[in-house]
Predict the structure.
Amino acid sequence: MSIDSIIEDFNFLDDWEDRYRYVIELGKGLEPLPVDKHTDENKVPGCVSQVWLDTTVFEQDGVRHIKFVGDSDALIVRGLIAILISLYSGRPAQEIRDTDALAVLRQLQLDEHLSQQRSNGLHSMVARMQAEAENALVA
């Protein structure tokens, strides 16, 4: 699902309970992260819940792209991962690095409706994905 579709769906839902349920449903639709990828190396620090992100760098038309697959032990966080994956995964590393995910997420008003701990975790996930993009560009 594209980030534009998610934003459109969010705008359609006016009740935050419905939006939370939608985020959880997004998480249920995540591509599974194999158990052997639940490693310390893939773990995202700064998240209250357990969060793992696996990164695959691939070349397409001479440009480095990144595919992300993620998982969490918390349903709402799995949904947040799904949103970030829809924003970043499969895109060129340069585009990932240059995209202000927090500005996109503000359109969803998540920062106003997440606990401080969840918000910090979301920021940690964004920072990790952008760092992976930076690493892919300099590699």
Summary: The radius of gyration is 14 Å. The beta strands are 51-60, 63-72, 91-92. The chain has a mean pLDDT of 94.
